[in-house]
Design a protein that fits this description.
The protein has about 350 residues and is an all-alpha fold. It has 14 helices and no strands. Helix 5 crosses helix 14 and helix 7 packs across helix 14. The structure holds retinal (RET) and fe (ii) ion. Fe (ii) ion binds next to helix 5 and helix 11. The site of retinal has 17 residues, from helix 5, helix 6, helix 7, helix 11 and helix 14.
Length: about 350
């Protein structure tokens, strides 16, 4: 059966529900975390790992666990066995191919993971800007691409500029599961000069992006203010909060939660609940739907630990393994989200 599904044109009541229940919490949590770190608070590594570890069950891993339902739904089709099998096949082919790259070229696979996440977390925020924050100045494809570069760079580049040591430690944790000392090839990326140049270029791009939005906004500047405030908040967040903690929190309350919010209106019962200003039943339904494949991914993680040449020996090693699993699952997940973008008109501007 073919149905029409919401694209970027969410009903006002749904937008309200998502702004209150999804955007606000992401602002409050990130802003609250900035404060102690601005005052120089330090926290032991184990505590910094908590959000990333929690993301295995809460928000993070589950956000991709209904990709097999999301794709048919966004097309207005029923999730038939055939449609679901198609998504599973996509995961199988892309996931296995990328996993093989990790075994043979781990350092290159890591760099690709960072760039893939940059694009993917950027594309997630772009949808939220268009559909929930309802910005009006992203009216050309070039401007939308710029939004992806700016938004994805916040979690992927800002930590490199401000915390190269941690960045390197995490890169090591992933790469050394496959080959010891391979991150030596990435030494250049952590050098002061590289970070200075990348930071300066990125700073200019952010400045250009925000100026473009300010000048291009026609219906008052309130939506631009949301975009600008989020951007500046996240720059500060990733500049002061230690990166494993910052990325873990961002992954859960920002990227994953916004993606889940995007999925909810695609399901008719959840859409009705949101329309009625009720977020909780929609989230409960999502949690039920996401449980089986979240659990299956955890089994995959255990299996993966038996396959890597240098199995994890400590908590950071396990986090590294978890991130490699995420990397492998993210490639097909990005394919699904990119198809969703196409169906929902994220790149349809006429210009
Ligand atoms: C943890 C961590 C890092 C990388 C995290 C990545 C790349 C996560 C990707 C998650 C994805 C793609 C989830 C799915 O949507 C950095 C940046 C090296 C800095 C140090 C901390
Ligand atoms: Fe995602």
């Amino acid at each position: 059966m073919i149905r029409t599904v919401p694209g970027l044109d969410l009903d006002g009541s749904i937008r309200d529900t998502l702004t209150r229940g999804v955007l606000w919490p992401s602002w409050v949590v990130t802003a609250a975390l900035v404060v102690p770190f601005l005052f120089g608070v330090t926290v032991p590594p184990v505590v910094q790992y908590v959000p990333l570890v929690a993301s295995v069950l809460v928000l993070g891993l589950p956000h991709g666990a209904i990709d097999h339902l999301a794709l048919p739904r966004v097309r207005g089709d029923d999730p038939t066995l055939r449609a679901i099998a198609g998504v599973f096949a996509l995961y199988g082919v892309l996931g296995v191919a990328y996993a093989a790259v990790w075994f043979f070229l781990p350092a290159a696979a890591f760099v690709f993971f960072i760039l893939l996440t940059w694009a993917h977390w950027g594309q997630g925020d772009l949808y939220a800007l268009l559909a929930v924050a309802d910005v009006d100045y992203l009216d050309t494809r070039l401007r939308r691409a710029l939004a992806v570069v700016v938004r994805g760079g916040l979690p992927m580049l800002v930590p490199l500029v401000f915390f190269p040591g941690w960045y390197r430690r995490v890169a090591d944790a992933l790469v050394s599961l496959f080959a010891l000392a391979s991150t030596a090839q990435l030494e250049w990326a952590f050098q002061f000069e590289t970070r200075l140049v990348l930071g300066a270029v990125y700073g200019l791009v952010v400045f250009g992006y925000l100026t473009m939005g300010y000048l291009g906004s026609t219906v008052g500047r309130s939506t631009w203010a949301v975009d600008a405030a989020e951007t500046l908040l996240l720059i500060t967040f990733f500049a002061v909060v230690p990166p494993v903690l910052a990325v873990g929190v961002y992954f859960c309350v920002w990227h994953a939660y916004r993606h889940i919010a995007r999925l909810l209106p695609l399901e008719p019962n959840s859409r009705a609940a949101l329309d009625d200003h009720r977020l909780r039943p929609a989230l409960a339904r999502f949690a039920r739907e996401a449980t089986p494949l979240t659990l299956a991914s955890i089994v995959l993680l255990a299996g993966f630990s038996l396959l890597v040449p240098n199995p994890p020996a400590d908590l950071l090693g396990w986090i590294g393994l978890y991130l490699v699993l995420i990397a492998v699952l993210t490639l097909p997940h990005v394919a699904v989200v990119t198809l969703m973008d196409r169906e929902q008109g994220v790149w349809t501007t006429g210009r």
